[in-house]
TrEMBL record:
It comes from the Bacteria. InterPro entries: Glyco_trans_2-like, Nucleotide-diphossugar_trans, TPR-like_helical_dom_sf. Gene3D superfamilies: Spore Coat Polysaccharide Biosynthesis Protein SpsA, Chain A (3.90.550.10), Tetratricopeptide repeat domain (1.25.40.10). Residues 5-105 form the Glycosyltransferase 2-like domain. Pfam families: Glycos_transf_2. This is Glycosyltransferase family 2 protein. SUPFAM superfamilies: Nucleotide-diphospho-sugar transferases (SSF53448), TPR-like (SSF48452).
Length: 369
């Protein structure tokens, strides 16, 4: 059985750290907590779980802090988490099983990262990260902001998920770091250009974000998943700026990098719905359902776009085209994922009356799609 060091960097995490450590401590053999300047009870909470609570002077560099934490580990493998992450019980069980069975020639294990959920606890946003790495390989973190762990060798894609429970308390932090670096005249890597654009967009500086997304794409040196994501985010910027032609152009540009992803198929479907071209819209929504991104995809996935959303939109399209039975079937498919969604409920009532489907009570109700 392998041994695991959990390595974390923290600052003012008194509201989340105990929840995180309680969810994972049974699976790890050592916990390393590196504090970058807490002024609350974070370090006291950490000491409930470990004696390895260390201080690191914050220098606006996340990779430096994470690399220091990794350097303190003693076990065979290193697991990393943020304080606002947790392992659900089933994922803790999976990690314990992995710990027992993992072959020692494994260099890294990827895990799913569940970022957002709907009101029914369905995952709507997810990606993959290298989470468990062999310590002897001395893999390094790279990047002052939105850092990444550079790994190689034998990599296993697991079905373990880490669940993010963050509240974005310090939402200006990364933007301020980028702005400081920019003011010093630092030359950004393509990855930095992309993430700087993300920060600008998240803070609603859409025109400036569009400039940096375009610069990133024009440079042609980005990771393919970032290229695809940048097309979508640039389309979002132009949508906010009211430029539908550029929004469409960005959506189409994503097809240069990979087969159409569900998110972009839904974008295309919505574009044609706005033009009342329901037949073409239906084509694109069907593509979203029939061509989901693989579960091992490293890019950000909006899982709504391959599950309930295209079915709901197909219901609307087929109703407008007069294919009410087909509309009803797609609404039922959407209802499988979103049984309490107001539009799904309204569509069901409307279409059952349209098709003469009688409720168990013997009554029908009138609504509209």
């Amino acid at each position: 059985m392998i041994s695991i060091s959990l390595c974390m960097i923290v600052k003012n995490e008194e509201n989340s750290l105990e929840r995180c450590l309680s969810s994972v401590h049974k699976a790890v053999d050592q916990i390393i907590i590196v504090d970058t300047g807490s002024t609350d009870s974070t370090k006291q909470i950490a000491r409930k779980f470990t004696r390895h609570v260390l201080d690191f002077e914050w220098i606006d560099d996340f990779a430096a802090a994470r690399n220091y934490a990794f350097s303190q580990a003693d076990m065979d493998y290193i697991l990393w988490l943020d304080a606002d992450d947790v392992l659900m019980e089933e994922d803790l069980s999976k990690l314990l099983a992995l710990k027992s069975d993992l072959k020692p020639d494994t260099d890294s294990v990827t895990m799913k990262y569940h970022l957002a959920f709907d009101e029914h606890a369905n995952v709507v946003s997810s990606l993959r990260r290298n989470r468990l790495v062999k310590r002897s390989n001395q893999f390094r973190w790279i990047g002052a902001v939105h850092e990444y762990l550079e790994v190689g060798g034998q990599i296993i894609d697991s079905d373990i998920a880490v669940t993010h429970c963050g509240d974005d308390r310090d939402s200006d932090r990364n933007l301020k770091i980028y702005m400081k670096r920019q003011s010093k005249g630092e030359i950004f890597s393509p990855r930095d250009v992309y993430y700087f654009a993300n920060e600008l967009k998240d803070h609603r500086y859409f025109e400036m974000a569009a400039v940096y997304y375009q610069r990133f794409l024009d440079d042609g040196k980005g990771w393919i998943e970032d290229n695809i994501a940048a097309c979508g985010k640039l389309a979002d910027c132009y949508h906010e700026l009211g430029d539908s032609s550029k929004e469409l152009a960005c959506t189409l540009k994503s097809f240069e990098y990979a087969p159409p992803r569900p998110e972009f198929c839904c974008r295309m479907g919505y574009y044609f719905m706005q033009k009342n071209d329901y037949s073409t819209a239906a084509f694109w929504y069907k593509q979203a359902i029939e061509n989901p991104a693989p579960d091992t995809s490293w890019g950000m996935q909006n899982l709504s776009c391959s599950t309930w959303l295209p079915h709901l939109q197909l219901c609307v399209c087929y109703d407008r085209l007069g294919f009410h039975e087909l509309a009803y079937r797609h609404n039922e498919a959407a209802r499988h994922f979103q049984p309490e969604h107001s539009a799904v409920i309204s569509n069901k009532t409307y279409l059952e009356e349209k098709l003469g489907i009688v409720h168990e009570s013997g009554t029908t109700a009138v609504s509209s799609v």
